TrEMBL record:
Belongs to the transcription factor STAT family. Residues 197-333 form the STAT transcription factor DNA-binding domain. One of its GO terms (molecular function) is DNA binding. Residues 366-441 form the Signal transducer and activator of transcription linker domain. SUPFAM superfamilies: p53-like transcription factors, SH2 domain. GO terms for biological process: signal transduction. Pfam families: STAT_bind, STAT_linker. Keywords: Activator, Cytoplasm, DNA-binding, Nucleus, Phosphoprotein, SH2 domain, Transcription, Transcription regulation. The keyword DNA-binding applies. InterPro entries: p53-like_TF_DNA-bd_sf, SH2_dom_sf, STAT, STAT_linker, STAT_TF_DNA-bd, STAT_TF_DNA-bd_N. It is found in: Cytoplasm; Nucleus. This is STAT transcription factor DNA-binding domain-containing protein. It comes from the Eukaryota.
Length: 616
């Protein structure tokens, strides 16, 4: 772009010299007529020919120059569209990153370590720095081309002796260029504020907000190099609907109260013009709907808000006062953690499948997506919620879709092409339970964040996504009595231990293998007695059943080797032949052993309602 501008300057200088020469050769005497093309003035034929040649050359140079200016303006228009698209893509990456998507296109795998995450963030910052530089270049080039076009208009207006029709045509074209460049400049100005660090997607009233940062793109080219010239920035909580009604921050209605919502731009260590908000606190938000009905309650829970950032009016040469503003991504507001599941459901779908324009407005979200897209989003959200290094596998996501639609054939069109409705995943209750697939999935991620459970998951000791029947079949077929850890299907956010025990028949003639499923354990249960302690005291758990999904290899690991990393010795276990016979029932579960008895048999919960035991 700078080369094209230099070419325009060169043509302008050549045209200026030619015009000066033309005006000198045609400078009239006091008694002469000023207009060369006055048909009533007698002229020397030789002079008339020379003037005609010079005039034609000058008009040709003028035409080339004006066309070059128009070409430069069109190139700037295209460059502005390109950088705006890159900014839009950057904002969408930033939005996806809030549920775990990688920030860089180079990342084909999920970030598996903190170092990978920091590298992705660095790449994202580098990408924004490039956009920042492009904004500055565009501001600089637009200003130079505006100055050149305005100078040409003045030059053509004041020139003498040229055909008026040709002059008027050139002036009209240059004025159109000026209007185009002014609109382009203002369009860029409306995009210079970027929320570099977004607020948390779910905010709580009476809580401090996480650190947020606003960045001023191309600030130095707008004269924002000195601290004294930098404006203050304010923000308020509102809605997108209210923002679309006004662009002046002082006119937009505030729907909540925020403390410490003002800051001032400054130059940071990276020489970037930014403002940070690290001490802000959300006090309250106004009720949005009449919550007397069930439908309005649902609407309120899904109500999205935005943070509207706006600067004091900025005075720019030739443009006067301009108002700069930016929007955060949509946020949800709650009072306590019991609301998080529903609030994050709305956030998940919007972050995964919504689109954002260059101004930060969120376009309409799709109400349905294909399963491969949803499965990908679930994988990223799982890692973002849990911080796990062991990622969800294809079999894990296949199990999740089976929870919604039941067992399916290989390459079932439901999983490959059929659209899955938003309500089906987020809201509708699954079969035989009173919660949705999202509720079940979210509760599992909160369970895995429990330290011991996360350790088991990362080490591959928690199979997790396996059905009641499948767990029974696999452990029954194992070479020795084994057990495995799985997520309860009938209880949200709970672990269950499935396994088999070998017992001696009453006549002591043979050993019978019988399956069991222990009662589900939630986070509150694990706080009372840890998973490691439960494994240690239960003498019927010998070998853990593990499956290496990549190679379909089945392994059995002793309980002692599982407990060793936690510094817990495994108890001495009596051989199966010395065990008392375990009485059977049509449906049973074995709860945790107490000091007084080894086994305790109760009717199972809804997760174990299909359990059957062979009776002898």
């Amino acid at each position: 772009m700078e080369q094209q501008l230099e070419e325009c300057v060169r043509l302008r200088n050549e045209y200026n010299h030619m015009l000066a020469y033309y005006n000198e050769t045609n400078e009239p005497l006091p008694h002469e007529v000023h207009h060369v093309y006055d048909n009533f003035a007698p002229l020397d034929p030789v002079m008339e020919v020379n003037d005609s040649i010079i005039c034609d050359n000058l008009l040709a140079k003028e035409t080339i120059l004006v066309q070059k200016v128009i070409e430069c303006a069109n190139l700037l228009q295209q460059s502005e569209e390109d950088v705006r698209n890159r900014l839009k893509i950057w904002k969408e990456k930033q939005m996806r990153a809030q549920i775990g998507y990688p920030c860089s296109d180079k990342d084909t795998e999920l970030a598996k370590t903190e170092k990978d995450t920091e590298l992705a963030n660095t790449e994202q910052d580098t990408e924004l720095a490039t956009i920042d530089s492009e904004f500055g270049t565009l501001f600089d080039c637009i200003s130079k081309l505006l100055e050149l076009a305005n100078g040409l208009v003045i030059m053509l207006t004041q020139s003498m002796g040229m055909p008026e029709n040709a002059q008027n045509c050139s002036i009209t074209q240059l004025n159109e260029v000026n209007s185009q460049l002014n609109l382009l400049y203002r369009a860029l100005l409306h995009q210079v504020l970027v929320v570099n660090e977004q607020p948390e997607p779910v905010l709580k009233t009476q809580r401090k907000l996480s650190k947020m940062e606003i960045r001023f793109l191309g600030a130095k080219k707008l004269g924002m190099e000195r601290e004294s010239n930098m404006p203050s920035v304010h923000f308020k909580i509102t809605t997108e609907e209210l923002v679309k009604q006004h662009t002046d921050g002082n006119m937009i209605e505030e729907v909540g109260i925020i403390e410490n919502a003002e800051g001032k731009f400054a130059v940071n260590a990276k020489q970037q013009i930014t403002v940070e908000f690290s001490k802000s606190k959300l006090i309250s938000v106004k009720p949005r709907t009449n919550c007397s009905s069930k439908e309005s309650q649902k609407t309120k829970k899904e109500q999205k808000y935005v943070l509207f950032f706006y600067s004091d009016p900025l005075n720019l040469k030739s443009f006067g006062q301009v108002n700069l503003w930016a929007l955060s991504l949509p946020i949800m507001v709650g009072v306590n953690v019991s609301q998080d599941c529903e609030l994050y459901a709305t956030v998940f779908w919007q972050r995964a499948f919504g689109c954002v324009d260059c101004h930060g407005h969120i376009e309409d979200e799709p109400q349905s997506v294909t399963w491969p897209k949803l499965a990908e989003a679930i994988k990223y959200q799982f890692q973002s919620f849990t911080g796990a290094t062991h990622l969800l596998t294809r079999s894990d996501t296949d199990f999740i879709v089976q929870k919604m639609f039941g067992p399916a054939l290989i390459n079932d069109p439901i999983k490959q092409g059929t659209l899955i409705e938003r309500e089906k995943f987020l809201k509708e209750h699954m079969e035989d339970v009173q919660f949705s697939c999202w509720d079940w999935f979210y509760s599992i991620t909160q369970l895995i964040k429990h330290k011991e459970v996360l350790d088991f998951w990362n080490k591959g000791w928690l199979i997790g996504f396996i059905s009641y029947d499948d767990a029974t079949q696999r452990t029954m077929k194992a070479r020795s009595p084994t057990f495995l850890l799985r997520f309860s299907e009938g209880t949200r956010g709970a672990l269950s231990i499935a396994g088999v025990v070998d017992t001696v028949t009453p006549d002591r003639q043979r050993v019978v293998r019988q399956p069991f499923h222990l009662s589900p354990m939630g986070i509150s249960d694990l706080k009372k007695m840890s998973l490691v302690e439960r494994l240690q005291v239960n003498q019927d758990l010998h070998n853990m059943y593990l499956e290496v999904s990549e190679v379909r290899e089945v392994r059995e690991v002793t309980k002692a080797s599982i407990l060793a990393p936690f510094g817990v010795p495994a108890p001495v276990i009596a051989p199966p032949s010395r065990r008392p016979y375990l009485l059977t029932k049509p449906a049973l579960s074995i709860s945790w052993p107490t000091p007084n008895r080894l086994f305790h048999m109760d009717p199972v919960d809804s997760d174990c309602s299909k359990m059957e035991v062979e009776a002898h």
